[in-house]
Amino acid sequence: MKKKRVSIKDIAAQLNISITTVSFILNGKSKEVGISTALTEKVLKHVEETGYKPNLLAKSLRTGKTKIICLLIENIADPFFATVAGYVEELFNQRGYKIIFGSTKNQAAKTRELIDLFRDRHVDGFIIAPSEKLEADITNLLNESIPLVLFDRYYKEIETDRVTTDNYEGAYNAVKLLIDQDYRNIALITIDSEQTQMHDRLLGYEKAISEYGLKPYTVKMNYQKVEQTAVEEITQLLTQNPDIDALFFGTNYLTLKGLQAIEELNLSVPGDIGVISFDDHDVFKLLKPNITAVAQPIAKMSEEMVNLLLEQIDVTKAERTKRQVVVPSTMHVRDSSIKKINHNA
Amino acid sequence: MKKKRVSIKDIAAQLNISITTVSFILNGKSKEVGISTALTEKVLKHVEETGYKPNLLAKSLRTGKTKIICLLIENIADPFFATVAGYVEELFNQRGYKIIFGSTKNQAAKTRELIDLFRDRHVDGFIIAPSEKLEADITNLLNESIPLVLFDRYYKEIETDRVTTDNYEGAYNAVKLLIDQDYRNIALITIDSEQTQMHDRLLGYEKAISEYGLKPYTVKMNYQKVEQTAVEEITQLLTQNPDIDALFFGTNYLTLKGLQAIEELNLSVPGDIGVISFDDHDVFKLLKPNITAVAQPIAKMSEEMVNLLLEQIDVTKAERTKRQVVVPSTMHVRDSSIKKINHNA
DNA sequence: ATATGTCACTAAATCGATGTAGTAAATAAA
DNA sequence: TTTATTTACTACATCGATTTAGTGACATAT
Questions:
Q1: Given this chain, do its domains A8-54 and A166-296 carry the same CATH topology?
Q2: A286 and B283: CB-CB below 8 Å?
Q3: pLDDT digits (tens, 9 = 90+) for B220-235
Q4: Min CA distance, A263 vs chain B (Å)?
């Protein structure tokens, strides 16, 4: 019952020819090395019949190529990252690569494990949304000349290929939009992270706030504890600061938590509280009211990442200059979460 | 700059001992094969210093073990599957396995590709939510004695380990709940699939409908086209059959589409239309009204899957009887999507 | 007749591990 | 003293591919 997997050696033996010949034929080198059409066809036919599939483990050991790309994201369940994953997978599939995902949970240890795991298995390249404290690991990859693209966030002190959104601008515009709608006490709900994307969003928020001489309210919560404590923290913020009239959320999952808090407090959006989210979410247009969001151009970002990585893989030797791509965010304005002016009118 | 990865051979050469010795030491066999403590420590120290990491590709080629499990699900972006993925990953990590995900998009060709890809790389086992037309591939895995657990759906004609929800019962109860709430023209919105999970949900629906002598309305839509056409199809159903007063959705993503259709038609839930979803969704409790759902006990299912697979991996030789686990679903009743009786009262 | 060139293949080294079957030296048993 | 046993290692085949450097047979050139 249990069939042993047939190897190239078996094929060669069955046809009474050398392993080398079979290998050449299977790799389409018949012409190049001068193997007769007759034999080529015979081998191909036999391979077809036996259903022989080369052992890619062995192949990779020999060649050092796996035709696999590793994509490390925060969480496969997060709609932003899931969408990126979808695009990147599709694009790489088109180029003959398989793609493998890993959820880092934004934890350095977990990311490190995944990097090691896949590096040991010789993936041909990495696309990573790095957690904090991963500088050393990233540097290692760079030193080993493993193709690498960072996205969403990066390290200022390490020069890598990377693709990010203009987080500063996006956040600034979001807060400005709230201000334009006459909101004056705007809090930023974000996570306690020094990662560039969150830092830039914070800076964008602060810029807009200070530009209009408003008072900043900032809540930074622990990423790992969002699921447990976010609703409560936001509830506290709102009860302790009844003057707050708008919330700008640093990420879409925080927005969902915030909406729950608002709901539980029996406050209304946008009348009592204006809401804008950084990062869009499928359900934002379904919720009542629907939620305005700063959206990242995910399709475009994905394309850029894929191109950067393929460039690195294809460049044989010559030193290639690292490239940084920054794409602008777009505002998905859905009035019903922020129409204070019309509301009051 | 570009460091060559150090191999066991390098380690052996540097210490002037044999490769075998190094291998034994690294695999903790010092005692067993009688290698002196002095040498053992010396090697371990040197390995530590050089930062040598064994090449798992080579190791796997030799041993046929990878300590990797492959989980194939419909779509990493789907909340049901994403949650399963999260649990399964966690459980396997605890047991020293890494887990690799693949999105099948419920397409046989894509699933086949993924199975082949990972089988070639000798993953130690598969957990699969199989698409249709995959019987031959599953049978192959079975013949090759590759550890395998199916979940969510299965093939009646193939005996495998599997874990599923009681879809029939769940659907029956959902429809019955609508009937109890005085809804009388209840449509089933499902996908055009003969897969067991969808088939059983259909049967459960039909059972309840016929038990009360009601008229069935069933819309089956193409899974691949849900994103494009679902809203329109549901809109049509509702406009062409104004007597319909409740919708039972076969999956949570269909529910989201249905709610969009209902919204666009300016109908209200639960007054005009009662709604129950098969499979829960994080946002169902956020939506207004919040949506009642038949929930699968994902944590428990995940545990069962992991246990079944580990059993297979651990069983050395003796024929093990395949096991089928069916877990009951639970109803997450959220009155506001179905409270017709109270509403009219 | 000898050298040169093609043609159609093949032997064997290699990738980096594991693990079986040994060996040489020291010690114990007869 | 000879044999058996133990101790502390090591040589080498192996997993299943790729790839370099040949080889033998035949044709053509000089």
A1: no
A2: yes
A3: 999 889 988 999 999 9
A4: 9
